[in-house]
Amino acid sequence: MARRSSGTDWVSTPKPHILWANTVLLVASSWFVEMARRQLRHKNRTAFNGWWTGATALGVLFLIGQAVAWNELRARGIYIASGPSTSFFYVLTATHAAHVIVAVAALVYVDVQAIRFRLGPAKRTGIDVSAIFWHFLDGMWLCLMALFYLLG
Questions:
Q1: Domain-located, residue 10
Q2: What does pLDDT average to over the chain?
Q3: How far apart are CA 88 and CA 110, in angstroms?
Q4: Cα–Cα distance between 104 and 59 in angstroms, integer?
Q5: CA distance to 9, 126, 145, 147, per residue, from 132 (Å)
Q6: Is residue 11, in this structure, part of any structural domain at all?
Q7: Among residues of the chain, what percentage have pLDDT more than 70?
């Protein structure tokens, strides 16, 4: 907000339409994580594994969608150096994506450990920490989307 108001060179970056699909993917993945945790509370490990694996897959699809968004901007000739708005868009979405990569790695770790019966109702710390981090990233993405569309 400070950078936008301090100069006359701010031109709003056109937003790739896939950002909306990415938002749906990320929100759905958080819902999948919660469904998995609910199944674990009911000691239904098979359902937990299915929901958790689904959440992981949706996280990977989100990352693919981000690559598609960046490629769409590049195809339009919009690069990180195209202007302040574009620079912020690339930096913020790339930073978020880097954190999502780490979070997907955590989801994969939990998935593998749960399938190998090393995590479960009695060993929930890794599950809960991964879920909280995932939900945090989901919330951050919603804030970024609001920032991109409300402030340009």
A1: no
A2: 91
A3: 33
A4: 6
A5: 39, 10, 20, 22
A6: no
A7: 91
Of 65, 45, 54, 19, give the one whose Cα is nearest residue 134.
54
Residue 96 φ/ψ, nearest 5 degrees: -60, -45
User: CB of 63 within 8 A of CB of 101?
Assistant: yes
* Full domain range(s) for residue 89: 16-151
Decide if pLDDT at 98 tops 60.
Answer: yes
Number of folded domains that form the chain: 1
Calculate ∠ Cα 126-40-56, nearest 5°.
60
The answer to whether residue 9 is domain-embedded is no
The amino acid occupying position 84 is P
Residue 121 tokens, joined: 């109702």
Q: Which of 135, 150, 143, 152 shows the shortest CA–CA distance to 27?
A: 135
Say if residue 99's pLDDT is above 90: yes
Residue 17 CB partners (closer than 8 Å, separation 6+) = none
Q: Which residue has the higher pLDDT, 18 or 117?
A: 18
Residue 3 lies in a domain: no
Query: Is the pTM higher than 0.85?
Result: yes
Q: Half-sphere exposure (CA, 13 Å, Cβ side) for 32?
A: 21
